[in-house]
Each structure stands twice: as C-alpha cells, then as structure tokens.
UniProtKB/TrEMBL annotation:
Pfam families: TetR_C_6, TetR_N. PROSITE patterns: HTH_TETR_2 (PS50977). Residues 37-56 bind DNA. This is DNA-binding transcriptional regulator, AcrR family. The keyword Ribonucleoprotein does not apply. Keywords: DNA-binding, Repressor, Transcription, Transcription regulation. Signal peptide: none annotated. It comes from the Bacteria. GO terms for molecular function: DNA-binding transcription factor activity; transcription cis-regulatory region binding. InterPro entries: BetI_C, Homeodomain-like_sf, HTH-type_TetR-like_transc_reg, HTH_TetR, Tet_transcr_reg_TetR-rel_C_sf. Gene3D superfamilies: Homeodomain-like, Tetracycline Repressor, domain 2.
Amino acid sequence: MVLMAQRGSYAKGVAKREEILATALEVIARHGYRRTSVRELAEAVGLSQAGLLHYFSSKEELFAEVLRKRDELSAAATKDATPLAILIDAVRHNAEVAGLVRLHTQFSAEATDELHPAHAFFAQRYAELRERSAEAIRQMQDAGELRRDVDAVTLATMTIALTDGLQTQWLLDPSIDMAAHIEALLALASAGGPAGSER
C-alpha cells in the first residue's frame, strides 16, 4: 500500500509540474518573463509561491524548463519535418510569441555564465541543434539541393547564429521577417546559388 501511495504521489507531482509548465508557457508568451512573477504563476495553478518552488528550485530553473517544454512541444508538432523546416516553422511561430522569444534571447545570453541554472540546458540544446541541422544539410547536399563545397557543420552553425541574431533584431524591430532571412541564407547555399553550382 505504501508503494502504491508513493507512485500515486509521484504521478500527481509529475502532473502538477506539467500543469505549471503549460501555464507558464501561456503566461510568458503573453506577458514576457520579466513581467511574470512566481506569485502570479503560483496563483494560476492554485499554489503558494513556496508550493510552486517545491517543484522548481528557483525562478531561473522554472524558466529553463519552460524553454525545454517549448522545444518538446515544437518537436512533437513537427516530428515528420526536416530539422531545417522545423527551424523555419519555429521562427515563423516565434513572431506570435514575443514573450518566449525574449525569454530565450535573454536567458541564452545569461546562461553563458557556467554558474547559471540554464547553462547546461543551452549548451546541450545548441550542440544537439547543430548536429541535427548539419545532418539535414548533408542530406540536402546528397540530394543536390545544397552546394557540396559548403561545410555542413559551418552552415548549421551560421544558420543557428542568424536565427538568434534575428530574434534580437526582431524584438527591437518587429517589421523584420525572420523566416525570410533564414530562407535567404539557405538560398545562397543552394546548388544553384552564388559562387558556382557544384554538385
């Protein structure tokens, strides 16, 4: 009976944690993370601040988990697409959720500090994103869609860097079409793009 009670308690804890993340995603997307307090999130899920921090050790850890959850939901919604298509779709979607873009932009910069709670998350995220994007680029090169004289890892790194830089510029000037700029970069690397059409 004790074991069953423990399992039930664990399942309830996981469900509550997921509820908190879902609520935080919605609230932060709408208001931004600097305008979102732990108290506001706690009240939205029927908890005290202390109760919410039972599931997350700090506000920073909570927000890092919000970004992880966002990535999980994005991947699940586009599981049959190529990594580059997923990236472009995600950038288009980001134009509708400025609060999450601001959270990602500010947190990724702060997380360059090795002591930041989100440091490991961002380091792993960028490494995996580079690897997946490079593999997608290699597949496009094999299919004759992208030039073979462009190193796949280099192009993947440049595409990710462009994405992050565009997000910063877009937060300052929402008229910028982020997805169009990424597509323009890939067009430059296309098999029929500038500097030859080597296949």
